[in-house]
Amino acid sequence: MKRVFLLLMLITTQLLLVSCGSSGGDTFEGGRLHKIAGGQVQVAELTGTFKQMGRQYGLLLGPQVRQFYKEVVEDFLILEKGWKYEDIKSSALQGYTEFPQIFKDYLDGTAETNGLGQEKTCIMAGIVPLIYETGCSSLSAWGDYTPDRSVVVGRNLDLPASNFGRFAKYFNVVVFNPMGFPASVANIDMIGGLFYQTAINSKGLFLELQNGQLSDGNFAMERQNSNNALLESLFRNTTSAETDQWFKSTLAQGGIIMNASFPDHASIYEWATFGVARRDGNGLISATNDFIDPSWGSKVPYIASASQEGDTYTYTRRTNLLNLGEQNKGVITPQKMMQIFDTTIPQGGATYPGGPEGRTIYSVVAHPGQLKIWLKVREFSGWNEIDLKPYFH
To answer: CATH for 132-167+203-387?
Structure first.
């Protein structure tokens, strides 16, 4: 009788776990999955060690990770693009070796519960750079430009988008609440991914990345992967002084432009393989894809002008954003910033209008002081408000 009871308990437990995973269930080992706006946006709220958070994520989103793997790796990269699985695997495993230990622990935990195993989990962790190259735009406003003088920031993630529409539904927000670290972090990523582009921590530091290789095409392979370093830094840096010191003491692996927005001000770090320059605005600051700080002098081979920017529109996007900022001086709320980032390049904005050049993948507006973000995944969703305070522990 005792054996029958124990067997029934075991079967019940397994059924509960399977049900939780297959339905995108609510909780597992302290992690929670939240659906916002009827499921258009999913927020994974994770808590514990990085290994424990990986296990939580793997089970809660396992069915979706497996479906995305089939669509992006098997159907797209291998069948359509003709890539060889061994080459994809080799790139992914090399990427795994470059992760800091905390992220290796996270992926190890994810592989235990997501149904893909270690090898395919590593592939999904680095799937974004296998598919896309980034462009991007940002605008931060504060002081005299916002009604309450607090920072409101917007950003576009711009990528070659001809094959993107089918994958738009696979973006999610992952909130990490790690034990032993001073800050929690919310990262916007594709399901199953571990690739930093846009994130905010619980201390109100909003950090987003833009490609700077037009001005610095060098690549220092021996250095730590910059995306990994940036994501890890958000768990540790809690003030603008710490963030500033971090950029001054860390060299980039490749040319990058960083928007660091805090509750009361914002800075742009033109982060090169050979140094860093910080730009500070007087209430309004924008960045696209070239270094423009005058201190670079002859070190920078490319600073865009209206006549020579080519199809990147880096000069036009930055100029348009600054113009829209000036036109709306004093009234830039999150809602106004959403309107600014809904304005296309032909309309005088920074967002790609779609069609053959349609490369704006998602847009984010953030109010760092309130720990709120608004996410719009183009070709999939409208603007969705996400109040992160309940998910930050």
So the answer is: 3.60.60.10
